[in-house]
């Protein structure tokens, strides 16, 4: 038993990094629990393992009495003095009660208990190592998949979970891939220590910038906000506490090397670095760049920023599927309302808008709307003010067309003036 135990202790200490004394105490406790019946019915008993040889002894604590009534818990004075010459009545001694076959019996009985205690020691070691590292970035190797969750092996023997909801939707992993992720939670229970990781959390990008940009790490440059759509685009707002330091330039780095390193880590995710400003108008203007804004106004009560842009800047300001405007709203904490500058609309676009507006009225339709617009009727009000003769003067219009249009716009009585139109008197 002692040779086998020595080998196990050496292996666990060397390969698993568990303290030898911790292991020995775990084995002593396991043997104590597993072998009470096979050792002695004494009330007070303990198991002792020699730290060098790993020899196992069972020791019972007995009281020195004149006449023994409980053989397992008491010892006669004469017998006690053979063990300890100066023993006297009332003293307590420890006597060895190790059975002849104790090593084999204890080894078989305690095997599972020992393994459980060793596993618990490993779990405790992992928990103590990682419980204060929430918010840190760690590296791991993909070991296996549990449905859509990724199980990573960290340094040593610790394992961590990258849940499906914390994955970046554009990334795929294979067993053996090395990836970095943010520790978001560490818990310990009967089932073990659970380390939760994330690559989609905005704080993952924040920590990458702190590691890559020395000015952020030493607090010269401060990140005032971050908005992220994992796998696609991230916006960060930065400000410098030193007027001599350009916060955007510090984050970008010489020839863009700093931000390129972070983009590479994020598998090509785009990053916009925005200069923060306490004036929300300036802040929104910076955040919507490179779109050029025509006008910016603020509704403080509704916490809304109204933005007017030229027609050719609208798609740039809104972004693909509204991404630029959406991230700007997250970054600033204000609702962003982006509108096209109607005064800058060209003639052809005005005509198209007028046709679309009239065609949407039930009873007019696209073909009639186009003829109306080309005849000079650009709005509903203009059509309502027209009489039947005006409509019949339009090329290609019949009496049926004229009546249908007047009915559609609310002037279905032939010759009746539209609401608000002047009347003729004779």
Q: TL;DR of this structure?
A:
By secondary structure, the chain is an alpha+beta fold.
Question: Could you walk me through the main structural features you see in this protein, from its secondary elements to its overall organization?
Answer:
With 426 residues, the chain is an alpha+beta fold. Helix content is 39%, strand content 24%. It contains 17 helices and 15 strands. The strands form 4 sheets. The chain has a 5-stranded antiparallel sheet with strand order 7-6-5-8-9. Strands 1, 2, 3 and 4 form a 4-stranded mixed sheet that branches. A hairpin with a 3-residue loop joins β10 and β11. α6 packs antiparallel against α9. The longest helix has 29 residues.
């Amino acid at each position: 038993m002692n040779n086998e135990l020595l080998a196990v202790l050496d292996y666990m200490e060397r390969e698993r990094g568990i303290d030898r004394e911790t292991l020995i105490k775990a084995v002593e406790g396991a043997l104590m629990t597993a072998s009470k019946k096979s050792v002695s019915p004494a009330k007070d008993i303990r198991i002792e393992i020699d730290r060098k040889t790993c020899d196992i002894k069972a020791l019972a604590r007995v009281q020195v009495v004149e006449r023994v009534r409980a053989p397992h818990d008491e010892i006669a004075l004469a017998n006690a003095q053979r063990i300890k010459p100066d023993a006297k009545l009332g003293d307590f001694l420890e006597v060895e009660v190790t059975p002849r076959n104790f090593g084999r019996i204890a080894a078989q009985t305690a095997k599972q208990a020992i393994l459980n205690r060793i596993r618990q020691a490993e779990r405790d070691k992992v928990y103590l190592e990682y419980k204060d590292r929430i918010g840190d970035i760690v590296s791991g190797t993909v070991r296996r998949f549990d449905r859509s969750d990724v199980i990573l092996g960290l340094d040593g023997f610790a394992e961590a979970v990258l849940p499906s909801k914390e994955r970046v939707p554009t990334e795929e992993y294979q067993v053996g891939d090395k990836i970095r992720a943010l520790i978001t939670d560490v818990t310990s229970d009967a089932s073990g220590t659970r380390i939760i990781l994330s690559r989609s959390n905005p704080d993952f990008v924040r920590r990458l910038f702190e590691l890559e940009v020395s000015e952020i790490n030493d607090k010269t440059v401060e990140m005032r906000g971050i908005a992220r759509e994992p796998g696609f685009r991230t916006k960060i707002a930065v400000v410098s506490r030193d007027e001599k330091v350009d916060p955007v330039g510090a984050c970008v780095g010489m020839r863009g090397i700093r931000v390129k390193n972070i983009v590479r880590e994020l598998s090509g995710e785009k990053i916009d670095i925005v200069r923060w400003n306490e004036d929300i108008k300036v802040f929104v203007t910076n955040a919507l760049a490179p779109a050029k804004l025509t006008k910016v106004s603020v509704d403080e009560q509704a916490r809304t920023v109204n933005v007017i842009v030229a027609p050719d800047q609208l798609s740039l300001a809104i972004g693909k599927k509204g991404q630029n405007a959406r991230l700007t709203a997250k970054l600033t904490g204000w609702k962003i309302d982006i509108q096209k500058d109607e005064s800058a609309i060209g003639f052809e676009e005005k005509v198209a808008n007028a046709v679309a507006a009239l065609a949407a009225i039930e009873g007019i339709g696209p073909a009639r709307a186009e003829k109306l617009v080309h005849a000079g009727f650009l709005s509903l009000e203009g059509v309502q003010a027209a009489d039947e003769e005006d409509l019949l003067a339009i090329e290609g219009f019949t009496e049926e067309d004229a009546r249908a249009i007047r009915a559609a716009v609310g002037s279905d009585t032939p010759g009746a003036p539209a609401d608000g139109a002047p009347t003729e008197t004779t």
